[in-house]
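wait is this the right file?? whatever heres the structure
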């Protein structure tokens, strides 16, 4: 039996990945019929996406703040400050990004955004790809699935953060980002502060932990309270919150692919395994995928990592997992031993052969050589990688930590990076 398609393309998840793709298709005045579905009822300022770029680029009008320097430090007072001429660390508020994309979609007659719709199983039908939703099935020519997936990983980055407004100056230098500050590590893993000073009185401050398992939200919130008190910020006014869990170094997905279905977003490979940055990777994918669809070709997922990058990321994560107490040492070795341009290219997926040599040369040799002959160790899949919002304030500063994550791609049942930080996600990252 022949059925009429509901859409040429159905996009599951209307977060960063889904909106980025749909926005590009809308700008191109596509004739393809596109339906985006997402369980959220609306959009709010739940993430901070950060990246390094020149002053002018295609999203520069959305940038809320820029910093010329980025700093690493540990609790012993060791510090490293980096700057690269012509490049700055830049911050986009998620609500500005969401609003821009939604406006583009609303002006496109062939693209429909359906919020409050939860998608379920996907199956291949005789006439297309069938998606079950809580408001009835959809039949599409192609499906792009940006929803999170519960998969085990080598490490997890757990974080909570808050944007604060203080009457007195907050004490952070407004010209530089604390990328990984007050780093300390023990048998449970790495912990550090990520701070984005928006001006002398406004600040986004996150508390982040790396470990072999996600950290409970209540523990993170309690620790963040301590960080705020240590910086005399306990009386500052909280404006909004962020928090989540990023899976770093996902176990390969051995499920057979479904014809007509591609995965994208964080679960599809958007996040950089060793850093958690994903926003610009999503933008590059969205541009390439939109180009394919506009040319009449099938959609594509994120490209595979180059062998050199994937191998170095895997070895780094494995060494961190095996020797969590040395993690601060590893990151400081990178920050102090690698020139700023090389380190930035490495974090931004643009490393050259010499950059990789400098990265390897800065790190202690024995733990990384030992990992070369070992297979990756993955933690059991968490039942739900999410930081649920409490029903009432449960910290001294009455911070309400929401269920947001670097899951840049959707709010559904999981936690962007940004931006938001494996080297910081606030964003992220």
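ok assuming it is, sequence goes like this
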């Amino acid at each position: 039996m022949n059925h009429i398609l509901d859409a040429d393309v159905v996009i599951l998840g209307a977060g960063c990945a889904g909106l980025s793709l749909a926005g590009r298709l809308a700008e191109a005045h596509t004739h393809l019929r596109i339906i985006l579905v997402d369980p959220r009822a609306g959009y709010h300022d739940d993430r901070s996406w950060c990246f390094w770029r020149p002053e002018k680029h295609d999203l520069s009008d959305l940038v809320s703040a820029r910093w010329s320097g980025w700093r690493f430090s540990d609790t012993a007072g060791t510090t490293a400050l980096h700057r690269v001429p012509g490049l700055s660390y830049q911050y986009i508020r998620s609500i500005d990004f969401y609003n821009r994309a939604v406006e583009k979609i609303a002006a496109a007659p062939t693209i429909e955004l359906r919020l409050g719709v939860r998608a379920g199983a996907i199956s291949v039908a005789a006439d297309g790809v069938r998606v079950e939703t809580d408001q009835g099935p959809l039949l599409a020519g192609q499906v792009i699935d940006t929803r999170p997936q519960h998969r085990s990983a080598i490490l997890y980055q757990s974080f909570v953060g808050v944007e604060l407004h203080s009457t007195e100056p907050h004490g952070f230098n407004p010209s530089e980002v604390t990328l990984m500050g007050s780093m300390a590590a023990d048998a449970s893993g790495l912990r550090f502060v990520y701070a984005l000073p928006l001006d002398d009185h406004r600040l986004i401050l996150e508390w982040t932990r790396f470990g072999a398992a996600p950290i409970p939200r209540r523990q993170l919130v309690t620790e963040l309270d301590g960080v705020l008190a240590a910086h005399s910020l306990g009386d500052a006014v909280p404006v909004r919150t962020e928090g989540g869990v990023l899976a770093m170094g996902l176990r390969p997905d051995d499920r057979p692919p479904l014809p007509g279905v591609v995965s994208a977003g964080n679960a599809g490979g958007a996040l950089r395994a060793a850093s958690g940055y994903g926003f610009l990777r999503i933008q590059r994918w969205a541009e390439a995928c939109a180009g394919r669809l506009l040319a009449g070709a099938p959609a594509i997922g994120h490209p595979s990592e180059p062998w050199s990058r994937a191998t170095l990321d895997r070895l780094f994560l494995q060494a961190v997992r095996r020797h969590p107490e040395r993690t601060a040492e590893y990151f400081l070795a990178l920050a102090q031993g690698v020139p700023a341009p090389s380190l930035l290219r490495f974090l931004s997926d643009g490393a050259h052969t010499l950059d990789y040599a400098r990265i390897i040369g800065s790190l202690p040799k024995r733990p990384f050589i030992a990992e070369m002959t070992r297979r990756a160790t993955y933690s059991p899949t968490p039942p739900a990688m999410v930081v649920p919002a409490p029903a009432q304030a449960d910290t001294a500063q009455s911070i309400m930590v929401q269920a947001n994550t670097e899951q840049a791609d959707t709010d559904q049942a999981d936690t962007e990076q940004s931006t938001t930080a494996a080297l910081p996600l606030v964003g992220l990252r």
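The first helix runs from residue 16 to 27. so i think its the right one actually
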